[in-house]
Amino acid sequence: MPRPFTPKIVTANLLRDGDVVYLTEDDRWSTDLTEAEVMTNEAHAQMRLVESDKPAVVVGTYLADVTVSDAGPVPTHFREEFRATGPTNYTHGKAHGQRPGPDAKV
């Protein structure tokens, strides 16, 4: 028996700098997860995935499971949560400025 379809988003990495991006309803790639288009229809999700594959812009496009909250899509897998929040080191990327580094004075 097939599993029921769960809401999905299209995600990838920007080719130029590796940033995690999400496909929006207006066919843009955004680094903001809250702007991601949430798809609840399997055929539509597969079509958007195929249409979004732009080798000169992004790499590694795939569908990721999400739930929907008042704040927008929420990843259901720890891998996607990790990708949405950025690297775990404190001085680079999206995580910079969000929490103190190991040498920070509290």
Automatic annotation (TrEMBL):
<feature type="region of interest" description="Disordered">
    <location>
        <begin position="83"/>
        <end position="106"/>
    </location>
</feature>
<dbReference type="Pfam" id="PF11011">
    <property type="entry name" value="DUF2849"/>
</dbReference>
<protein>
    <recommendedName>
        <fullName>Sulfite reductase (NADPH) hemoprotein beta-component</fullName>
    </recommendedName>
</protein>
<dbReference type="InterPro" id="IPR021270">
    <property type="entry name" value="DUF2849"/>
</dbReference>
